[in-house]
Design the sequence.
């Protein structure tokens, strides 16, 4: 199948014309985070009513070309699983997409269990996509014709898929649900990027919450050590060494490079070439005073502790009502209402719909779909 490869502004005349004319476009992004240190935006695929374009943001800045259409709320931007791509667009190009229609969100609100693009295209359109380049390094140049065609396929069928899903949503009376979810997703992308930039890296490591303050400080230093190596080598940090071997090194406190390389999963070459610096950092933490240590970060508004027993007990009863309603609607329980929102409701204990509407993160469609059932439980406890 054909596509237009846009590597410089001179290649973009057709795309510029289509973006100025079309009221619906399909969009997808490729990044390099699986292979490279930076998960920078490496490719954009755009399908208009007349053609498919593969845009190379590593060759030129496409922001002036794309920003007017993508930020125009009257232009529907069809994407699939847009959350991560929206963050990339916001962070790397300063573009905040408006007019989003996310086919994954739509499928979830229709009660679909298989939400991947491949599964939806097969079920709705009978289209089977190749999987050959799922783990490709999109930062490499030049890109092969096969890689480019694979990327273009991610948007070629999105408009047809969205037509099917929109019709099903309208038939089920859930089209307003999808619109609300997509508007919320647009707004959350920028906030999520800002929060990720400020996040303490230890919170991403399984088991870190249970460490002592000194161990947490040592783990943080070890993660910084790995990050520096990954940056120099332009590799994803997990490709340098996984979280668990690094955590084991922190806990084991090896005395030399030989002991370090004996840790399961710790690459011997890495231990020999870079291990001395890690051992030095761990020794510094071991000798540090208590005042120099930083504990595991506390969550805003309280800390990592569990909610009070009475809140947990009420949340469990709210879950029963939520689960029953989800079954009636044919929705995944978490799609109808996440457990975190139930905890917030159990904490606030609203008495009516006006009180429910004040719960942060509760969508209007969720309140309409399950609010009455939740209020029955809440008013039994007053």
Sequence:
């Amino acid at each position: 199948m054909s596509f237009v490869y846009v590597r410089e502004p001179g290649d973009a005349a057709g795309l510029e014309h289509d973006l100025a004319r079309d009221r619906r476009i399909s969009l997808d992004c490729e990044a390099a985070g699986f292979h490279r240190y930076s998960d920078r935006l490496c490719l954009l695929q755009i399908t208009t009513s007349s053609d498919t374009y593969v845009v190379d943001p590593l060759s030129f800045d496409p922001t002036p070309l794309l920003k007017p259409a993508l930020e125009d709320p009257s232009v529907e931007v069809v994407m699939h699983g847009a959350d991560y791509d929206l963050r990339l667009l916001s962070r790397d190009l300063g573009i905040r997409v408006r007019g989003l229609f996310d086919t994954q969100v739509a499928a979830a609100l229709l009660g679909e269990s298989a939400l991947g693009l491949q599964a939806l295209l097969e079920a709705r359109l009978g289209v089977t996509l190749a999987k050959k380049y799922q783990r490709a390094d999109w930062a490499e140049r030049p890109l092969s014709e096969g890689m480019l065609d694979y990327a273009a396929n991610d948007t070629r069928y999105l408009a047809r898929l969205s037509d099917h899903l929109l019709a099903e949503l309208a038939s089920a009376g859930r089209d307003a649900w999808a619109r609300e979810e997509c508007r919320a997703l647009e707004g959350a992308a920028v906030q999520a990027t800002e929060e990720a930039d400020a996040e303490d890296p230890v919170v991403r490591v399984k088991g870190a919450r249970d460490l002592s303050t000194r161990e947490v400080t040592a783990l943080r230093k070890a993660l910084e050590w790995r990050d520096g190596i990954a940056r120099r080598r332009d590799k994803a940090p997990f490709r340098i060494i996984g979280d668990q071997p690094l955590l084991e090194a922190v806990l084991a406190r090896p005395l030399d490079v030989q002991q370090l390389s004996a840790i399961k999963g710790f690459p011997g070459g890495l231990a020999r070439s870079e291990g001395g610096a890690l051992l030095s950092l761990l020794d510094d933490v071991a000798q540090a005073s208590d005042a120099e240590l930083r504990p595991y970060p506390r969550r805003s508004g309280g800390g990592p502790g569990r909610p009070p027993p009475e809140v947990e007990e009420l949340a469990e009863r709210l879950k029963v009502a939520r689960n029953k309603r989800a079954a009636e609607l044919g929705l995944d329980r978490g799609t109808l209402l996440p457990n975190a929102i139930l905890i917030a409701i159990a904490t606030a204990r609203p008495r009516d719909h006006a009180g429910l509407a004040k719960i942060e993160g509760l969508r209007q469609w969720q309140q309409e779909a399950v609010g009455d059932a939740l209020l029955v439980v809440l008013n039994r406890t007053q």
Notes: The CA atoms of residues 202 and 220 lie 6 Å apart.
